[in-house]
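Predict the structure of [histone H3]-lysine(4) N-trimethyltransferase.
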Amino acid sequence: DWSEFYGSLGLERFDCPGKGRGLRVTRPFRVGELLLSCPPFSHVLSVKERGCYCENCFTRKEGLAKCGKCKKAFYCNVKCQKADWAMHKLECSAMTAFGENWCPSEMTRLVARILAKKKTQKESCASEKILLIGDIQSHVEDEDNEQKQNREADIAALHRFYSKHLDLPEHKDLQTLLSQVACNGFTIEDDELSHMGTAVYPDVALINHSCLPSVIVTYNGTSAEVRAVQDMKPGDEVLISYIDLLYPTDDRNHRLRESYFFTCNCQECKSKSKDKAKLKVRKRSDPIEPDDISNMTRYARKTIREFRACKHIKNILPSSLLEMCEQSLEQMGSVFADSNVFMLHMMYQAMGVCLYLQDAEGAVSYGERIIKPYSQLYPPYSLNVSSMYLKLGRLYMSLEKHSAGVRALKKAMAIMEVAHGKDHLYLKELRKEITQK
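Done. Here is the predicted structure for [histone H3]-lysine(4) N-trimethyltransferase.
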């Protein structure tokens, strides 16, 4: 009984005008308090993280044991390996058979696991008209050509790599399921917001979006945990952010329409109160013309798209990516202030390239320019801010700047105690990190 389950947590489902279903609280919640913790319906570890994390529970540790057959999947112990076998067997022999040609997307892999899970629960997926996972929306009819092409590629990959172990549903039903997962899947990230994998949480998928979120979702192993980042009173809707909140209103809503097929109408989107600060221009003796600002904004958006595309080009040199960042920062810097979000975006990308190149000094120089504007432009208890303090703290430590490192790590910890809970493994490790230095 859903109402009983949510009621015991101080939550209730309700029909939200213009948004469909939603969740609201039936009792007060304080900042940092846990509203909901739930395991995934299904989850998958990113191929890039294999060997670093257990495929089953996402524990990070040294000396994981590898699968004896495919030698590609890694586990904490025999217990985790057995628990994951129903899912891993979908890929185990296929990875060996296809070798380097085994290349399903993370979305394909997750959908295969969802279908396998439904089969083990004795649900006849093939005969279902719509493959609902809980109460999750599909937007097949709203997708653009690129999204449709991606769906078709995923369906082709399901047939190519998984047909041996799965009786795949009809084409139309697969389109629906892929659309559901695209709109409602969650990216599982570590303490520095590095991508670890993808999962589906039907309970968390009930929560609607706001650019002024009342809760935040973090991960404990593979479980999703929802904590309050504002004090809440009975009747308040539970709201998360589906997107990165750094950007101004028009950019946020463009992203929401592109990925989630709606426009946000929250108080921040109505008032645009932070847009002026987010789009700050440089102070100059000669005033900057409005046309110069709009032209530079167009240039910035184009550069961000081009940089994103370049990152996916095989064999592109990191030095070329860094050069792109530096050139765009120089160009934008003639009009935009350093705290302008488009400047911050390219600084963040440059910092990432420096980290990849193991240039700690370079990464710190960008991080130091980013952190203050981040703290001002993001909402309180933002993971984007805590992860930046973590990165900076660890970089300072590597450069023997211990007091600066401890200061940065303590600032990260203050945010994470609210977002992750004081007993989270990340906090325990962070306290150790600080005391050891």
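DSSP finds 15 helices and twelve strands in the chain.
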